[in-house]
Amino acid sequence: MRIRDLNWMQLEKYLERDDRIVLPLGSTEQHAYLSLETDNIIAERLAVEAAEPLGIPVLPVLAYGITPGFGAFPGSPTLRLETFVAVVREILDSLHGQGFGRCLIANGHGGNTSARVAVMEWMTTHEDAVVLWHEVWEGRPDEVAAELDPDYDHASWSENFPWTRLADVELPKERKPPLVRPRWSRPQEWRDALGDGSFGGPYQLHDDGVLRLWAAAVEELRERLDSGWPS
After folding, report:
1. Domain span at residue 18?
2. What pTM, to 2 d.p., does this model score?
3. Inter-residue contact 76 to 29 (CB < 8 Å)
4. Which one-letter DSSP state was computed for residue 34?
5. What is the CATH number of the domain that holds 65?
6. Domain total for the chain?
7. pLDDT greater than 90 at residue 231
């Protein structure tokens, strides 16, 4: 359940029986022909679908992440690592102070993963709290994706869902060659190397396949929320 659909009194009532909450992490950035908010849409929607049957509240997605390489693409703002880490830590501080002892972070953007160490460090000073860092495409989703098509990466078919597509935007039919990474991680060099922004592979597969991938990601996250906490 999204906390946008609750008031504070309902959430306080929830805390009388449970102390779990989900924080989705995303990034606003180029995704070739898909929405600039692809990572945000995916992280929050996966979290909501996974948490709903368990009755666990889901915070709004943290919509800005660490994406300096896409700086030459309009609509791709980035946070510095220290800024992003500070925001995540302060959110955890606030939630912990309000009684949320267990927080699952559902990360939908690979550039944010470097903050995982800071979260582990945060737990060393909050021994009564547990934070699970969950990469939404790891585990079974990664296995399903590899079965469907081995070329899956940023802005490819593996992020192309009915809810990340844009109306009246036609995607290329051909398979894009894999990205040849630039020698230096400078924004303009990344843009020159990427062209339209996709890292390569098919732009779209049949929805039967991608929805199977989606279901695997929901299942993996739900299992973690339900039984992934240390005893």
Report:
1. 3-227
2. 0.96
3. yes
4. B
5. 3.40.50.10310
6. 1
7. no
